[in-house]
Amino acid sequence: MAPDVKILASPGASPQAEVKWSMEAHKSLHCAHSENIRSLLMHGWSFDTDLVGEASTSDNKAEQAKAERIIFRLDSSQFIEETMGSLLSYCYGRSLHGTSVENLLELVDGATYLGMTSFSLRFEESLVAKLKSENVAQCIRLPRNTEQSDSPWDATSIYVRT
Question: Which InterPro entries did the record assign (predicted)?
């Protein structure tokens, strides 16, 4: 089955801005793992679409729908391509083997942003399991942009549980 979702990342998630990176996935995967995306799809949120391959010449709406792909737009300043790739890879394969502390921090942020609560908790558990006195400093996240302090994604985070 061909991917039916295209993820585009651009500054501010704007359709007019230059696309920094893109990747494809399956709508069922997003619905199964992301409460936010499932809610948008189930409640009739309007998405941009594009055609996959050649469009069907049939008048049958079911056949035409198969030729469309939903476009999700993400803010490229919030997500790097590797983080989204790792997040989708985990959705498909459920393996965190060999994931570094820094990558786990990015996965926690991505899963939280997309409403993947169970994944976020799993990534936090893996992060706690990897904590050692040598790498605890890597778990301190300083603000990315000191001029914008109103965004929860720029706030300082420390992922240490006692």
Answer: SKP1/BTB/POZ_sf
